[in-house]
Amino acid sequence: MTIRPTSFALAAFAGFALLAACGSGDAPAASVDAETAALPLSNGMTAAETIDARQTHLKAVGKAFKTISDGLKESEPDMAALQAAAASVPAETATMADWFPDGSGPASGVKTDALPVIWEARADFDSKMADFTAAAATLDTAAQAGDIPAITEAFKATGATCKACHQTYRADD
Ligand code: HEC
Fold it and tell me: Which of 33, 42, 79, 154 is the most exposed place for a label (fewest CB within 10 A)?
């Protein structure tokens, strides 16, 4: 009794898998992907534009972080350079809340290290973003005050918020 429906379901699944396999390999499916990638998302940008913009901003944040990290290793850091780098982090990430709209994950067909779990655990992702924003603001305040021990502490705290997000939501980390 149970064998019949199971084998029917398996046959149906095999048929579906076959169709899916055909669809993903030929030209029409590729052009559907291209059309999907060109549709505006909730931030008014396409997936390709969204992903390119967030990667560009994050690259700049990574560079600023390297400047701060290198500076803190010196006995007499270049305070102006530290201050500029610390100030650039909140500036670069001011629009971060709009960087990960629905449709800007890997399913868009655009190359991205953002993992699909972002859109499955949105509340947690947003709270990681809020932790980062708060820490980066504290780091900027410490830098503008020129207080090296406070900068060092805030730098570590901010770095931990980068890592906390990356380890769950970014590929290759
Ligand atoms: C709320 C999550 C989150 C926080 C916080 C976060 N990141 Fe990321 N980061 C990501 C995701 C997701 C990607 C992958 C983006 C993509 O490929 O579309 C990424 C990518 C990057 C990249 C690679 C950009 C590229 O494509 O070249 C760098 C560098 C980076 N992050 C640095 C940082 C630093 C430094 C911090 C902290 C100061 C930080 N990030 C905080 C989620 C986050």
Answer: 42
